[in-house]
Specification:
heterodimer, A: alpha/beta, 4-stranded antiparallel β-sheet, 11 strands, B: alpha/beta, 5 strands, 11% strand
Chain lengths: 374, 212
């Protein structure tokens, strides 16, 4: 992994699927998603390690967890076929298994993924709430990095431990609601920028905390700032500066930063690539969004490592023969000369067959041997 | 008079919310027919919708246009004389299906339908098939619009259509579907009357189905 992240040719293309414990690893472990989401840290570590040990991919994607006292801050309501986790009055909504702060959280008892309720904070309230920055020492003390510490202790010597940190624009949308955020880009741009700066400050503290806890690579997840949502001009004004500064601050912690861009990147690709990340990863193609990985590879050149955006939504849940074909094609197109890691465009879904993940990994190992001719 | 109406439309097309509101108030001051102003705003939103379809405008621009129009219409409607009420193109009931609490796309579709001249009844999120049926029975809409963002919940769209069939309401309402995982093939499979990939498409298919 580190060889590829350093833009060199490893002996073989590494495989690092975007994988949340609550999804595929929970199914593999025989759990419902709600069992994982409402379960404790020991259970989550077992779930993640079980999946890693079965498939032997090249990282363990650990997440931050909720604070030790999270249950005191929320009310968990049983609604028959689902639980609703809502913040108590005047408490921040704490999402189990996630670190985004949202308006509430719905955890179905069947195997549907949890869904968060976007916040409906007014912009002024959000500024007030965000002004109370939690520094990295407090984050560590709160227990939110215990899962990372546990995984680092158990397998940190044999495999890379990764953690996700989010971006300011996506978080602003989560706190305010998408429409409220977009409207305020026009109506209260200065206040929006203040919010974005505050979120950045908070996320850098979270970055410090996860690195201190044992994370060796940060997956910076940016959402809702593609041109399927905002204009290129708005991206340059409200997203790019904050992503760029977040990358810069996180890189100062001495770990590689992978910038994952969720949304349509093609019209703003040259701008995204100015963020100076160690690696870039993109969502797979979806309705009305075509992510041209070959074009991206040409644009990235030797500047950074590139993750494959293997289609986790359709192909990875489909025919294993098609998986092999797609892996082969992706490797032939973008792996030569190194700096390539086979990843997935979205988190590996709950109902993905284990043999399909094996097919992706074994095809990568088979077709991804270096040296390759360019 | 035409100049101020054109300015209103141009402000909307230029995403200038403050100017749209200011001109709307001026229009009331100079006693121009508010219905003519609303027509101009509709022209403006159509221009932005067309730009969106051509990839020349973005979702944020579509939303700010729709929001500005909503605010302006609220101002203008206060001056519509009784008996000269706004005419709707048709009535739409919409909501996100049961088990799904996503409302982004649904809200944008509701706003676009509303500002395009439809009377909209938004049932919100996590709406059961029974609630949809009851609302259809109560309001007798021309169109029922169903939204889902999750692959596992879009199957509930079929349940709504089946429920409408069971109570004999299916032929009385056109059903359109949309949302991230929804495709034209899925719409055909479950027997929906229409499918749209985005909010502008939803307005277009609604107009097409009602021939307006």
């Amino acid at each position: 992994m580190l060889t590829a992240l350093n833009l060199e040719e490893p002996d073989i293309v590494p495989v690092a699927p975007y994988i949340y414990g609550r999804e595929y690893p929970s199914k593999l472990f025989g759990l419902k998603i709600s069992d994982y989401v409402l379960g404790d840290i020991q259970l989550r570590a077992k779930v993640l390690l079980n999946s890693y040990r079965m498939h032997r991919y090249d990282w363990v994607f650990a997440g931050m967890n909720e604070p030790k006292n999270w249950r005191e801050k929320v009310r968990i309501e049983d609604h028959g076929n689902h639980y609703v986790v809502v913040p108590k009055r005047d408490q921040e909504a704490v999402v189990p298994g996630q670190h985004r702060r949202v308006g509430g959280w719905v955890v179905p008892k069947d195997n549907n993924a949890p869904q968060y309720v976007m916040g409906d904070l007014k912009i002024e309230e959000a500024v007030k709430q965000l002004s109370d920055i939690e520094d990295y020492e407090s984050i560590l003390k709160s227990g939110r990095c215990e899962l990372i510490k546990l995984l680092s202790k158990k397998v940190g010597k044999e495999v890379l431990i990764a953690a996700e940190i989010d971006d300011a624009f996506g978080e602003a949308c989560t706190r305010l609601g998408l429409s409220e955020t977009l409207v305020n880009l026009y109506k209260k741009p200065n206040l929006m920028k203040k919010i974005l700066r505050l979120i950045n400050t908070q996320y850098v503290e979270e970055g410090k905390a996860v690195v201190e806890a044992g994370v060796e690579v940060i997956w910076l997840c940016t959402v809702l700032s593609g041109t399927d949502i905002i204009s290129p001009k708005q991206f340059e004004e409200f997203a790019l500066p904050y992503i760029r500064s977040e990358v810069e601050e996180l890189r100062r912690l001495g770990v590689p930063v992978i910038l994952y861009f969720c949304g349509d990147p093609m019209l703003i690709l040259d701008k995204i690539l100015t963020c100076n990340a160690g690696a870039y990863a993109f969502e797979e193609n979806k309705k009305k969004i075509e992510v041209d990985l070959v074009k991206i590879k040409e644009a990235v050149k030797d500047r950074a490592c590139l993750f494959g955006n293997f289609d986790a939504v359709h192909t990875l849940r489909g025919d294993p023969r098609r998986i092999e074909e797609n892996v082969k094609e992706m490797i032939e197109n973008v792996a030569p000369s190194g700096g390539f890691i086979m990843g997935t465009g979205s988190p590996v879904m709950y109902d993905t067959p284990p043999e399909n993940i094996d097919a992706m990994i074994s095809a990568t190992r088979r077709f991804g041997r270096y040296p390759k001719k360019t | 008079m035409n100049r101020i109406l054109d300015e209103l439309r141009d402000a909307l097309v230029g995403y200038d919310t403050e100017k749209v509101i200011k001109i709307s108030k001026e229009i009331l001051d100079v006693q121009i027919d508010p219905l003519r102003a609303i027509e101009k705003l509709t022209e403006g939103i159509r221009i932005v919708g067309d730009k969106f379809e051509r990839g020349e405008a973005f979702l944020s621009e579509l939303i700010i246009t729709a929001e500005a129009m909503k605010e302006a219409v609220a101002i203008l409607e206060t001056a519509i004389p009784k008996g000269k009420s706004k005419k709707y193109l048709g009535k739409v009931v919409l909501g996100t299906v049961e088990g799904d609490i996503h409302d982004l796309g649904k809200n944008i579709v509701a706003t676009m339908l509303s500002v395009s001249g439809f009377e909209v009844f938004d049932l919100g999120v996590n709406v059961s098939a029974l609630t949809f049926v009851e609302k259809v029975r109560e309001t007798k809409p021309d169109i029922l619009a169903l939204s889902a963002l999750v692959t596992t919940t879009m199957t509930k769209m079929r349940d709504v259509i089946v429920a409408l069939e069971k109570v004999g309401l299916r032929k009385k309402v056109k059903v359109i579907v949309g949302g991230a995982p929804v495709t034209r093939d899925w719409a055909n499979e479950i027997g929906a009357d229409g499918y749209a990939a985005d909010a502008v498409g939803a307005v277009a298919i609604a107009k097409k189905l009602l021939k307006v």
